[in-house]
Amino acid sequence: MTAVPPGKDSQHGRRPSTIRDVATLAGVSKSTASRVVLGQGGVSPENVEKVRRAIEQLDFTPNQIARNLTAPSSAILGLFLRHTHSPFYASLAGAFEESAGAKGYEVMSLASGDQPDEANYRSLMLMADMRTAGIVVASPTVEPRTIRQVASRVPLVLVGQMGQPANPGVPYVAPDPREGRALIEHIVGLGHRSIALLAFAPEHSPTQWARIAWMRDELERQGLLSSLKIITPDGDLTEVLGKLYRAGTTAILCNSDWTALDAIAAAARLGLSVPGDLSIAGYDGVPPFDHEAIGLTTYRIPVNGMAEAAVRLVDELVRDSHVETGGILLPGELVVGRTSGPAPTDPRSGNAS
User: Fold this and answer.
1) Domains in the chain, please, with CATH?
2) One-letter-per-residue 3-state SS of the chain
């Protein structure tokens, strides 16, 4: 009797592929293939890559019988964060746990810590195999292939990023990058006509880059952009601030509140007054940066709204409710503090060292 080749369409004479088929195609043992699928360690990166290619080629989906037997009682949502030490992700995690709790879910959280995507894959597969009803991924550095493979096994929603072109069927929740206009309107309303942007490279933070790219285009359209400076995390901004000030820049919009505080510290080292010589604004507006004692002008991202929307979407997927393809973009609010003020009437160009 001739064996029926594996495949996803058993109704047309093709049986579903098995873990043994994956192992054979990848050229590894069945136990190695199983460890990769389950997100377990002890497998070389080369073999992980072989197994993942085989999974894609065979359109392999692990047997869901055991999970389906317990799914009605499963009340756990997975939350996969980029970091645990970041104030933004800490705020998001707290809001997510509160929103999930209101719907009767417990939350299991893991963090990427910007490890290689093989580690993201293992962590997310571990979540998928621990009876999680659904997973919310709040780490924009997880590669599309990993998202696609995990989403084929468990309901998944992206939060904090505007989806992935390679995965148009995965719903997402994100802050609306166009809302950066509120910062621009505030700064322009104070009389500033030479405005600079500070940002990390797109690959470091796609989400932050989306907001900066929109503000760049809008400032260019209005003829107000003096410069866009790509900076490195934790880098000293003293030289950057000095060059911008000497070039006549009077206001700086930053990719995050952390960057804004670093810029304010650099201005102090240069003997510049904020906002007398330079107005500086951040972006995120999460605690503790939004405290009035700091007085930072910033744009507050709707963290609570994002968490609520993400929980609602993943809950609808868990319940097999219809979810529109695409995503939800949410507006935040402008927070005006002491770090922005009227543009200097006579900007100096030689005071900064």
Assistant:
1) 16-58 (1.10.260.40), 71-175+304-331 (3.40.50.2300), 178-301 (3.40.50.2300)
2) CCCCCECCCHHHCCECCCHHHHHHHHCCCHHHHHHHHCCCCCCCHHHHHHHHHHHHHHCCCCCCHHHHHHHHHCCEEEEEECCCCCHHHHHHHHHHHHHHHHCCCEEEEEECCCCCHHHHHHHHHHHHCCCCCEEEEECCCCCHHHHHHHHCCCCEEEECCCCCCCCCCCCEEEECHHHHHHHHHHHHHCCCCCEEEEECCCCCCHHHHHHHHHHHHHHHHHCCEEEEEECCCCCCCHHHHHHHHHCCCCEEEECCHHHHHHHHHHHHHCCCCCCCCCEEECCECCCCCCCCCCCCEEEECCHHHHHHHHHHHHHHHHCCCCCCCCEEEECCEEECCCCCCCCCCCCCCCCCC
